[in-house]
Amino acid sequence: MISTHMQRMRDKLRAGKVVLGAGITLTDPAVTEALAPSVDFVWIDLEHNPITVEKMLGHLIAARAGGCASIVRIPTNDVGWIKRVLDSGAEGIILPRAYSAKEVADFVSACRYPPLGTRGFGPRRPMQYGRLEQQAYLQQANRDLFVVAQVETKELVADLDNVLKLEGLDSLVLGPQDLSGSMGRLGETTHPDVVQAMKTVASKAKAAGKFIGSGLGANPKFAKLLIDCGVQWMQAGNDFEYMIRNCERTFSQIRGESGDQGTTDSYGQKQ
Questions:
Q1: The pLDDT of residue 262
Q2: SS3 string of the chain?
Q3: CA distance to 71, 124, 164, per residue, from 170 (Å)
Q4: Which positions are catalytic?
Q5: What is the pLDDT of residues 123-162, one digit of tens each?
Q6: Which domains does the chain possess?
Q7: Phi, psi of 52 (to 5 degrees)
Q8: % the chain with pLDDT above 70
Q9: Is the pLDDT of residue 259 over 60?
């Protein structure tokens, strides 16, 4: 059996450790190369950023070389996107902004090879360009791929019990910003109603044997709130955010200023 970075991430989750990763929004794979030794995974975001499939491949190669798991958020629930992302070698894949269990079911099916799903066969890079034996690869792919649905709508929260019945779905991941917006409170991610919704999702996911993650800005205070809600893995900030915050903190310290006062994360939330 070939050991993968995703297997090591799963082992940490099963051991009860908080797993932390970085959001990748910039196109240069050197970003992932630089961050890989410091993170458990990279979250390569194709939904909100101008990263092409070719640029994504560079990040996947850098993540593999750097020793961290790679998870890609696709822009839409389209089989063409799923095929290209998985056949490029992503170890995990995230479906954003689903509204129903049916959407999630279609996504999960497209991610799993028969008999577990309907994924088409063409894994050139994942099979090491033909070096791996086919049946062994198929078993590993269905076992190890980290398939994730993002909970960002009140409609999916209402259909959550059906979502959690789906075989082949490994994890849910919260999208606090869009979830709060769906509840009529965009940006109010610490409002009691939003927090309660996140706690409900986390507790139900764990009861169903699924992992629970979240996206967020580089905001330790909010990260601790999410951990209190039951979140196990987090994309805690983005590449550009780390550069800006450390630059401003360093310059403030050089000038003798208190550089951490009044700072915000990438969503404009106070630290």
A1: 57
A2: CCCCHHHHHHHHHHCCCCEEEEEECCCCCHHHHHHHHHCCEEEEECCCCCCCHHHHHHHHHHHHHHCCEEEEECCCCCHHHHHHHHHCCCCEEEECCCCCHHHHHHHHHHHCCCCCCCCCCCCCCCCCCCCCCHHHHHHHHHHHCEEEEEECCHHHHHCHHHHCCCCCCCEEEECHHHHHHHCCCCCCCCCHHHHHHHHHHHHHHHHCCCEEEEEECCCHHHHHHHHHHCCCEEEEEEHHHHHHHHHHHHHHHHCCCCCCCCCECCCCCEC
A3: 13, 24, 9
A4: 48
A5: 999 999 999 999 999 999 999 999 999 999 999 999 999 9
A6: 5-254 (3.20.20.60)
A7: -80, 170
A8: 96
A9: no
Whole-angstrom distance, CA of residue 62 vs CA of residue 252? 32
Residue at 28: amino acid letter: D
Give the residue carrying structure tokens 């799993």.
Answer: 112
Query: What CA–CA distance (Å, rounded) separates 234 from 143?
Result: 22
Give the up-direction half-sphere exposure of residue 40: CA atoms within 13 A in the CB hemisphere: 19
pLDDT at residue 264, rounded to an integer: 80
